[in-house]
Write a structure and sequence with these properties.
alpha/beta, eight-stranded mixed β-sheet, about 600 residues, GMC_OxRdtase, signal, seven-stranded antiparallel β-sheet, flavoprotein, binds 2-acetamido-2-deoxy-beta-D-glucopyranose, FAD/NAD(P)-binding domain, 15 helices, binds flavin-adenine dinucleotide
Length: about 600
């Protein structure tokens, strides 16, 4: 039996050419010096880890609370048809919101990825950068023109690559190759076009003024209707783990990942506000270990994990921390404050024809498709089967909702998003009919003004924080949602839908007055799983906010945040694309700070 020290040494020799995956903190060699410690192997964390480890002179450790993405049940992550099925499983943190006053007191399940790849491994795979306004707003609010749409082009191209669907269906006229890049994340369009999609596109041809067709919604033009890009390639979901983390681990010795281990506290080292030490533990009762970074600690724990960890470390609103017994180290009032999220409501119609519903309710066909995927990564399970077409619309410019100001990211940003599915998509609490063919369309207020918060209830890292997105607590949000439902009904009332739409689902048919629509929204709307802004960015000179333009925590040394929590507001597009792009630039900023290659 070798003594522990020798054992650790042998371990490090065995792994001489590859990065290691550790599953307990005691496996990490006490002799290895890490330049960077990244908390969270999620969407942003995997990008940072892969980019920083490109320089062979630095050592990088990633600490991830969750599980491996390539072990038990990995097909739940990687089969495109099963997108959504990872929610509520071993890959989910299983958070819930507080009772939401805007939702008649309902508390919602609030999924977040608990796995390598983070939420990119359990999300709905939509890859939509949003309008150029979104990034120009980020540049504006941070005072750093490097975040503008134009200046981020290189980082967009570094992130993703458009790929063909598994069946090589031609995508000519459905996207613009010139706005896509050469990065590791694979994106693509649906292998299977449904009648619902055809009618959406036909409506844009019939009414181009009212419903313009946009060739590529990833081009910076974030208004209009078009084909939806998803993070799928080669018949599989592409995640930040499959695209960034695994390739780096499999080719470099200077990157290690520690799984099943939660960062519980940041410790200030030399000087009061220098945070280069991370405490970790595997459970509330397990031994606490500690790791030190010689250069930086980078928090990529997401919109829930990042503010929680900051507050556990005494970084946040002093009075609130005191109330849970945490000594303040750095008073930053906006940690956990300003939380925004978007919300989704589905409406359904019976349609004439064989829709995707028939396939999804056929157990044998489904089973065969999963077998085909297992063998060849082809067939109906290998493509995005859900949303293929989407529209981003403005409220009319004379809308009374805009009198008090326009909350959109800019004049070319949507207030309302509509998306289309050729199946019955139930809201929480609704049961899909067992007969008939169905389509659904969803309404999202893209530019909500409600802001909630995330609070600690305990000084233990293993007690969930309270999550209060405060949905529909402003007049704008509920008013815009009601308008969105009407805009959707107008879109579906054109002759283009004749012979296809038979009738609205009974609950949808019953909605006549604004009051009835409002009640329906408050009864059935769900989270769209897009929380942001709990550690928001601001200018160096601003007294509010949590990070400055380089994503360094204000008033601290050695500590940066790179994830969706830094976003100033709910995103005008979809968050994962923006998180990837921000992470690419953040990695370049870190490399530049430390003169890395
Ligand atoms: C069900 C669902 C559907 C979605 N659909 C879409 C979509 O279709 N399109 C889209 O663009 N966006 C979608 N999103 C949102 C998008 O996926 C997220 O906004 C984005 O992935 C967030 O990236 P992130 O890096 O901020 O956090 P994450 O990717 O969530 O990464 C955070 C990581 O940190 C880890 N972690 C947290 N706390 C700790 C700790 N204390 N110690 C160690 N590790 C920790 C977590 O386990 C996780 O791996 C969806 C999200 C969900 C949950
Ligand atoms: C989430 O819930 C599922 C189902 O109960 C469970 O298997 C999983 O372990 C839970 N996740 C966590 C992080 O506890
Ligand atoms: C930021 O926006 C304000 C208000 O729209 C504008 O006046 C200002 O020029 C913008 N600043 C930058 C740097 O874009
Ligand atoms: C798609 O094209 C690739 C590359 O040309 C080829 O290998 C593959 O067999 C094609 N697949 C189908 C289903 O035609
Ligand atoms: C798709 O998979 C094939 C076979 O595994 C591989 O050779 C190819 O490089 C992959 N394509 C992309 C774009 O990753
Ligand atoms: C999981 O991923 C790691 C890192 O890429 C790799 O070393 C390991 O072999 C993979 N495990 C399986 C079962 O594929
Ligand atoms: C929760 O956090 C918000 C924002 O920091 C704060 O306004 C609110 O008072 C907090 N609530 C509690 C119960 O501490
Ligand atoms: C799916 O296929 C497997 C393997 O052929 C079989 O064992 C199983 O019973 C099938 N399930 C259904 C629902 O058809
Ligand atoms: C898998 O691909 C091979 C070669 O193209 C083909 O012969 C076989 O029928 C496919 N299997 C399934 C289940 O689709
Ligand atoms: C906005 O303008 C349209 C068309 O000009 C008109 O029909 C509508 O009544 C106006 N709405 C309001 C709130 O003024
Ligand atoms: C259904 O579609 C067929 C043609 O595809 C058409 O003949 C029929 O009238 C349609 N039925 C309804 C109720 O629209």
């Amino acid at each position: 039996m070798a003594p522990p020290v020798l054992f650790a040494l042998l371990l490090s020799l065995v792994n001489i050419s590859l990065g290691s995956i550790f599953t307990a903190p005691e496996q990490v060699s006490a002799f290895k010096k890490y330049d960077f410690i990244i908390v969270g192997a999620g969407t942003a964390g995997s990008v940072i880890a892969a980019r920083l480890s490109e320089d062979p002179s630095v050592n990088v450790l990633v600490i991830e609370a969750g599980v491996a993405d390539n072990g038990t049940d990995s097909e739940l992550i990687y089969i495109p048809l099963l997108a959504g099925e990872g929610v509520g499983t071993l890959f989910d943190w299983n958070y819930t919101t507080t009772a939401q006053s805007g939702f008649n007191g309902r508390a919602l399940d609030f999924p977040r990825g608990f796995v390598m790849g983070g939420s990119s491994a359990i999300n709905s795979m939509i890859y939509s950068r949003g309008p150029s306004d979104e990034y120009d707003r980020l540049a504006n609010l941070s005072g750093d023109s490097g975040w503008s749409w134009d200046n981020l082009e290189g980082y967009r191209l570094m992130n993703e690559k458009h790929s063909s669907p598994w069946n090589n269906r031609s995508n000519v006229g459905e996207y613009d190759p010139s706005v896509h890049g050469y990065g590791p994340l694979l994106t693509g369009l649906t292998p299977t076009v449904f009648e619902t999609d055809n009618r959406v596109i036909a409506n844009t041809a019939a009414y181009p003024e009212q419903y313009p067709f946009t060739l590529d919604l990833n081009s910076g033009n974030g208004l209009g209707f078009g084909w939806l890009e998803t993070s799928v390639g080669n018949g599989s979901r592409s995640t930040s783990a499959s695209a960034y983390l695994h390739p780096a681990l499999n080719s470099r010795s200077n990157l290690d990942v520690l799984l099943h281990t939660q960062a519980t506290r940041l410790v200030s080292t030399s000087g009061k506000v220098t945070f280069r030490e991370v405490q970790v533990a595997q459970s509330a009762t397990a031994t606490i270990y500690s790791f030190k970074a010689t250069k930086e600690v980078i928090l990529c724990a997401g919109s829930v994990g990042t503010p929680q960890l900051l507050m556990l470390s005494g970084i946040g609103p002093t009075e609130q921390l005191k109330s849970v017994g945490i000594t303040s180290v750095l008073n930053l009032a906006d940690v956990g404050n300003n939380m925004q999220d978007q919300s989704i409501l589905a409406l359904q119609w019976e349609v004439n024809g064989t829709s995707l519903s028939s396939f999804l309710s056929d157990a044998t066909a489904l089973n065969e498709s999963l077998e085909q995927w297992a063998i060849n990564k082809t067939g109906p399970a290998a493509g995005n089967m859900m949303v293929n077409t989407i529209g981003f619309l403005r409220l009319p410019s004379n809308s009374t909702l805009l009198v008090a100001g326009d909350p959109a990211a800019g004049p070319n940003s949507a207030h309302i998003q509509l998306s289309f599915l050729e199946t019955f998509y139930p809201n929480p609490g609704q049961v899909s009919p067992t007969t008939g063919s169905w389509m659904s369309a969803t309404v999202v207020v893209q530019s909500p003004t409600s802001r909630g918060s995330l609070n600690l209830t305990s000084s233990s890292a293993f007690v969930h924080p309270t999550i209060n997105p405060a949905y529909y607590t402003t007049a704008f949000d509920i008013g815009a949602a009601i308008e969105g439902v009407k805009m959707l009904r107008d879109f579906l009332a054109t002759p283009v839908w004749d012979g296809y739409i038979i009738a609205p689902y009974s609950a949808v048919a019953a909605l006549q007055t604004d009051a009835e629509i409002e009640t329906y929204i408050r009864t059935f709307a769900n989270t769209l799983d897009h929380p942001t802004s709990t550690a928001k960015i601001s200018k160096i000179t601003d007294s509010f906010g949590v990070v400055g333009p380089e994503l360094l925590v204000k008033g601290a040394t050695g500590l940066r945040i790179v994830d969706a929590s830094i976003l100033p507001a709910a995103v005008a597009g979809f968050p994962q694309a923006e998180v990837y792009i921000i992470a690419e630039r953040a990695a370049a900023l870190i490399k530049s700070t430390w003169s890395l290659s």
